[in-house]
Amino acid sequence: MCAKYAASPNFFGYCGPAKSSNIIDHLRSDIADQELKYIISEFETLYPYLQLIARINGIDDPFDNRVVEAYWIGNSLLNKIKKNEYLNFLQERLFLDKKLPKVSFQKIKHKIALTPFLPHHSFHVFNIFRRTGHDPNFQTIETMDECRINYGQIQKSKNDKLKFKGLNKFIVKARRLMITENKLYLSEPSIREINGDYKGKKFIRELKEGEWVSFHWGHICDVLTERQVNNLEFYTQKAIKFYNS
Predict the structure, then answer these.
(1) Please, are residues 47 and 62 in contact by the beta-carbon 8 Å criterion?
(2) Which residues pair with 173 in a beta bridge?
(3) Is 69 in contact with 75 (CB distance < 8 Å)?
(4) Rounded distance, CA 226 to CA 215, Å?
(5) For 139-195, what is the HEC assignment?
(6) Domains detected in the chain
(7) Half-sphere exposure of 190 (CA within 13 A, CB side)
(8) Bridge partners of 186?
């Protein structure tokens, strides 16, 4: 599950080790082994978050599905993470006090201390302001929208069939992240084309009209249940509210 969401930023070289083909090959073969765990453990932001969520909830395995879901999609495990624990995590595990300008880091600490938060993937994307992978640039609204876990519903093609376009593209109806007067919000749903493979390599076997899917950096990650769609909407909106506060 974790590899499905980590594959696309690793494919583009934004996060994790230079082993994107290994991750995708594992997904194509449906193999979750020690090699895959080792590769994902090299993601300098993702893996520490999994460890944090697992430790605070008394779960031994950072790759437990509940932990992975909490980080990428959102669930109740996030509720147990306290402000002081999270602030220590940002400084002692992610070293943001060294990666960010001092004034920026102090502002983040001050806001977290005063404002309710839930440390979901989108929360980090929207509110840390600076990428913590291999690209040290500040986020833009475009990169924030690509980096968050988006979700949409599979649509029919013009021929009323789910046909691939180009290499392997699916048509989805989804919302975009927008900003007006420095306030984030989600747009009305619109039609988008999302990749279903990585240079000819694919692990998504089949998708049906009406199914909800998640996608990351323009690539489909997984099919979502109704509960997961609702959770992803809820935790994304919580992250937006924190940004706007």
Answers:
(1) yes
(2) 153, 191
(3) yes
(4) 16
(5) CCHHHHHHHCCEEEEECCCCCCCCCCCCCCEEEEEECCEEEECCEEEECCCEEEEEE
(6) 2-127 (no CATH), 148-244 (2.40.50)
(7) 7
(8) 177
Please list, in sequence order, all residues whose beta carbon lies within 8 angstroms of the beta carbon of residue 198, skipping any fewer than 6 positions away. 7, 8, 11, 20, 24, 219
Q: What is the pLDDT of residues 113-151, one digit of tens each?
A: 999 999 999 999 999 865 444 444 557 899 999 999 999
Summarize the confidence of residues 185-189 as an average pLDDT.
Answer: 96
For residue range 62-94, list pLDDT tens digits in order.
Answer: 999 999 999 999 999 999 999 999 999 999 999
Check: CB of residue 32 under 8 Å from CB of residue 42.
no
DSSP tag of 217: T
**Residue 84 DSSP SS3:** helix
Structural tokens at position 60: 């031994």
Q: Say if CB 217 and CB 8 are below 8 A apart.
A: yes
CB 164 within 8 A of CB 154: no
Q: What is the DSSP letter of 139?
A: P
The SS3 of residue 16 is coil
Find the radius of gyration of the CA atoms of the chain.
Answer: 18
How far is the first Cα of the chain from the last one, in angstroms, to the nearest whole number?
Answer: 32
Residue 14 half-sphere exposure toward CB, CA atoms < 13 A? 19
pTM for this prediction = 0.89
Flag whether pLDDT at 160 surpasses 50: no
